Amino acid sequence: SGCVRGNTTRANVKRKATSAPAGKKPTAKQQKLVPLKEEKKERAGGWLQEKLKQRRTEKKEMKFNKKRLRFVSDTEKIKQGSEGVLYWMSRDHRVQGEHTPSSKTIRHLVCLNSFLVLLKLQDVIDMPISGSSLLNVRLKAQNFPHFFLSSPFFTSQPVDWDKTLVSLQVDRTVGEPEWATPGTKGGIAMLESFIDVRLKLFDTKRNDPNADALSHLSPWIRFGHLSAQRVALQVQHSGKKAGQSVSSFIEELVVRRELTDNFCFYNKKYDSASEWAQKTLEVHAEDNRPYLYTRQQLEEAKTHDKLWNAAQYQMVSEGKMHGFLRMYWAKKILEWTSSPKEALSIALYLNDRYELDGQDPNGFVGCMWSICGIHDQGWRERAVFGKIRYMNYKGCTRKFDVAQFERKYCPKKL
Ligand SMILES: Cc1cc2nc3c(=O)[nH]c(=O)nc-3n(C[C@H](O)[C@H](O)[C@H](O)COP(=O)(O)OP(=O)(O)OC[C@H]3O[C@@H](n4cnc5c(N)ncnc54)[C@H](O)[C@@H]3O)c2cc1C
């Protein structure tokens, strides 16, 4: 591309958000793209944090639908001398603000009138999914009023995070992004700025990588710092003026996300392409590939395609690639590597190494959708892709100002 320097895997460089979804220590107002005068008057920054704090301290009786309780263990009595219960948390498997939609293994320890009960809050969309059941999930989500119930607040014990962080044996060669403050507070600030500023753009601008219209909440949802249910409730409650954007957002947050969870959990062949896709990819296995790149070249954003390089750079430098570009990015890996198997392996490697929201069912299904056509249909046949849906550079130029994005994310310091 002529504008890539250095090695994207090089490390310990703080990953900065040039698009700045939020500042270093983001307050809701710092995260604003375009401050709204009337909203400024209406509520000061931090209103959501305040609201939740207030609700936590209120001694109001919480309405609770007991149908959503299910014992997950035969052991209803806790052994004398037991000191704790292991709480295995991943993504929406969490205590705060959650009815654990789609969590199948979690046990909650809840203290009810001084009796200890091991229970699981009943699943929301608990269904085996095979093939393209997007419609089923959508219908079930719409018809499942339990999902939109307020959820319990719990208080937690302080944790020495510095000590915990030092003790972790993790890959520290990927820099830490500055725009995202980890933890629930950071997530709530981001949610607040989404409701105040970006939500109204979501319906019309979510596919424009130059517009700051997405929620940016995936990292907090991924790590269980924010509950998807809490986000859905809050957006429905506070985003009434945002019109169609609310339902478009719920479609992503609830329907698409639940589809990936249920697909990966229930489908024994979740890592295989559908028969039609396998066939078509096999037929085109020997097709001539005009460009072939190694994993390293891709990782270092050294392709001929400035848009692809920019997307890769956005992911490496900020830890979050725009959602629209993720599709283009993965499809080009299919086009520029020697086999679909290699393409999937590289896409998952890069996604899970650099995306803050990586290593989760959304990413797995996203890569499988792009490369192996899951939850999709066959399209017009063409070289390399066969009937897998194709995307190209020209198509992107029709959707958004590609040159603007390339200028902004032309890799500079890597
Ligand atoms: C190749 C590829 C890789 C992807 N990798 C990941 C990944 O590693 N982790 C991840 O969370 N998402 C992934 N996605 C899905 C989607 O791109 C991201 O969830 C989204 O861009 C996150 O940004 P956001 O929170 O600002 O999104 P918003 O558009 O504001 O959406 C809000 C939430 O809805 C959910 N969501 C949105 N789009 C999807 C989708 N297509 N499928 C399932 N859930 C969705 C997420 O929980 C997201 O946080 C991937 C998609 C593709 C095509």
From TrEMBL:
It catalyses: cyclobutadipyrimidine (in DNA) = 2 pyrimidine residues (in DNA). The keyword Signal does not apply. Its cofactor is FAD. Residues 1-52 are annotated as: Disordered. Residues 1-11 have a biased composition (Polar residues). Keywords: DNA damage, DNA repair, DNA-binding, FAD, Flavoprotein, Lyase. Its EC number is 4.1.99.3. Residues 35-44 have a biased composition (Basic and acidic residues). It comes from the Eukaryota. GO terms for molecular function: deoxyribodipyrimidine photo-lyase activity; DNA binding. InterPro entries: Crypto/Photolyase_FAD-like_sf, DNA_photolyase_2_CS, Photolyase_Class-2. The keyword Transit peptide does not apply. One of its GO terms (biological process) is photoreactive repair. Belongs to the DNA photolyase class-2 family. This is Deoxyribodipyrimidine photo-lyase. It comes from Seriola lalandi dorsalis.
